[in-house]
Amino acid sequence: MQVTIQTFIGGLSLGAIYALVAMGFSLVYRTMGLVNFAHGNVVMIGAYFASTFYLSAKLPFAAAMVIALVVTGLIGIVIERVLRPLENKDFDLMLIGTIGFGIVLEALAIIIWGATGRAVPSPVPGAPLDVFGIRIRTYDLVVLAIAAAATAVLVLFLQRTKRGAAMQAVAMDHQAATAVGIHVGRSNSIAFMIGAGLAALAGGLVGPLLYVSPAMGGTLGIKGFAAAILGGFGSIPGAIIGGLCIGVLDGFTAGHFQGYSELVTFLVFTVIIMVRPTGIFGERTVNRA
Amino acid sequence: MSLFARRRVAILSTVAAATIALSACSAPGEDEESSSSGDGPIKIAVVNAQSGQLSSLGAWELKGVKLAVDEWNKAGGVGGRQIELGVFDDQGDPTVGTNLARKIASEGYVAMLGTAESAVTIAMAPILQQEEIPNITSGQSPGLVAVKSPFLFLNGPTSTTYDETLAKYIVDTKGIKSIAVITNNGSYGKGEHDAFLKALSSRGVTPVADHAVTTDQKDFSAALTSIRQKNPQLIFVGAEEVQSGLIVKQARDLGIKAPFAGAAPQGTPVFIDTAGAANAEGTIVSSPYLSNEISDASRTFAAAYKAMHGEDAEMHGAKAYDGAQIMLTALKNSNLATGKPLADAIRSTKHAGLLGNFTFDETGVGIFETSIGTITSGKLIAATDA
Fold first, then answer.
1. Which residues form the signal peptide (chain B) (predicted)?
2. More confident residue, B53 or A26
3. Interface contact flag, A86 B55, Cβ < 8 Å
4. Dihedral sign, Cα of residue B357, residue B362, residue B364, residue B369
5. Which single residue of A243, A269, B176, B353 has CA 20 to 30 Å from A203?
């Protein structure tokens, strides 16, 4: 029983990170119908910015996170701006373009920060809480709280603001949206910016949990993408549920199947997707490709 | 505008294709100049992961090799000729490695240094043997010896040596019998798992828990919680630097107080940083190169390394430095031989290196002992009772 609960808790904190990554994937997909394959690498860049401002510039962790969010958001805008001429022309090239950006970002990280990577000490010192023999890291609670807050802000933005509504409109029908005077390019740009910001949030938060290295984007990207698909690609609540599911599922398969855990996780994932191809919350389908 | 943008994206996307293509296309007809004749530079290939998960290993190895070659070049090179290093990125991938083996053969490299990943070296070995290119690897898997290539040499001990020394210290010297094992299922972790369990079973000890994790795994709550319930006196970790560090950090968060033990990766700064110095305290390490403070030679090496690269030297750099020194000494002793004569020259080279005194046997292993160290106040220091 103790093992089960502890495994669940361990899975939740990484699950919250996967959820943030999945939200970035979903936001860009629902707005543009594009899978941003550079997203995992943007997470890595965000982690580097956050850790650089935190460790090298000695800023408080929160301040470092905010700066990392802004800078990485700008990178998102740059990616969208470079790819924009391809929208509605050749969508496959646009997909490949995001893969190219991913490789460029990883190479840049190696040039700027070196190949070795760095460990980030936890910004929340203090021993883990001990609840009836179950250990809960205080930093995990911080991660869960920030992930929840980020979700709430994003949902409010999409549903309550004019800009958010415009983005929803573009997602539903970009030609009609253009006809009523919505700037599709700007809407896409904002989607990329928020997506990159979420990536930086995930990367910055995961730094103290894991290890910041140029290769860290790979696993986080794949797990985040799987989470987005599982929850229903394009759905924001789906991304959250999907992320937490993948994190917890991963924890339990690791306990039961040890070396084969990755295999079992993705087998379970495949079966769920076969039974329910649109994912858990996938009632809305976006098809722009 | 659109044409320009399209081209821009096409360029980006070809970056991916180009990396693969560069390593793949090695036409057999490329100018096969023999670099052992004439008076051009002597070409030595350094193959290691310079990108991907294992790139930190590749970076350290390259720094060690560069330092050794730099010293020789400043002293006039070998036989009056400079040494030229060709750096190749194997991405830690055996497939890329085999392509690179063909590439360095066709481009006239006389010898190869690397890789740090046993699986890649094993994949490359048959081609290098066929092309008669001697290779000094930094891998330590017993599988390297099983290849039985007369052209393959190791710049350190094999896992068997690391773990036999470790088990001897833990079980025989310390009398610890209640041991949990957590290893990853990659080539390194699997080798550590088998070698350590063999060393334990020869002493009649069975681990109280034996957990495997995947190389990509980040959350170890399940394995560590069940290890905690067994309450072992010591936990053996067989994984690379970063993963070992994460395992130790999470174990301490879960309230596990038992010390950890492991081979080379657990003695590195990356491990200590990832785990946190306080969490890594007391970790027992079996390593052929405990610290930069062990001898006058290691102090000189560490100072030169720091001066050249601006960071502290560690074991992988030292191993690669030794390997490069042996290669260059063999080149000098054999009067710039290539192929089989060079391999024979390496085998007969007796080198007093940073790791100890190298005397190669027919398996290509030159060093058969490691030392025991403990992490004390964030630094690896020699154990007094080993």
1. 1-26
2. A26
3. no
4. negative
5. A269
Q: What is the pLDDT of residue B27?
A: 42
The 10 Å Cβ neighbour count of residue A217 is 27
Residue numbers in B near A104 (CB within 8 A):
12, 15
A10 with B221: Cβ contact below 8 A: yes
CB pairs under 8 A between A and B: 157
Give the nearest partner residue to A11 out of B59, B219, B253, using CB atoms: B219
Helix crossing, A236-257 with A138-160: angle to 10°? 150
Question: Residue A242 in contact with residue A231, Cβ under 8 Å?
Answer: yes
Are B59 and A99 a contacting pair at CB < 8 A?
no
Of residues B219, B229, B270, nearest to A254 (C-beta): B219
Tell me, what's the ipTM? 0.86
Between residues 338 and 367 of chain B, which touch chain A (CB distance below 8 Å)? none
Name the CATH topology of B42-157+295-355: Rossmann fold (3.40.50)
Maximum Cα interatomic distance, chain B, rounded to a whole number of Å:
75
For chain B, give every domain's residue range.
Answer: 42-157+295-355, 160-287+371-382
CA distances in angstroms from A92 to A36, A125, A192, listed in the order given = 12, 47, 18
Structure tokens that stand for A115 in this block: 């190949």
CB pair distance less than 8 Å for A128 and B255: yes
Whether B42-157+295-355 and B160-287+371-382 share one fold: the answer is: yes
pLDDT single digits (tens) A182-216: 888 888 899 999 999 999 999 999 999 999 988 88
Is the model's pLDDT at B124 over the cut of 80?
Answer: yes
- The reply to whether residue A135 touches residue B254, judged by beta carbons under 8 angstroms, is yes
Q: What is the CATH number of domain B160-287+371-382?
A: 3.40.50.2300
Which of A85, A119, A219 shows the shortest C-beta gap to B5? Answer: A85
Question: Which residue of chain B comes nearest to A99, CA vs CA?
Answer: B13
Chain A contact probe: residue of B48, B60, B218 with most A CBs at under 10 A: B218
Give per-residue pLDDT as tens, B21-56: 444 444 444 444 444 456 789 999 999 998 877 788
Contact A3 B10 (CB under 8 A): no
Domains in chain A (CATH in brackets) are: 2-120+127-275 (1.10.3470)
How far apart are the C-alpha atoms of B222 and B234, rounded to whole Å?
18
Interaxial angle between packed helices B315-333 and B296-309, expressed in degrees from 0 to 180 and rounded to the nearest 10: 100
How far is A83 from B75, CA to CA, in rounded Å?
A: 52
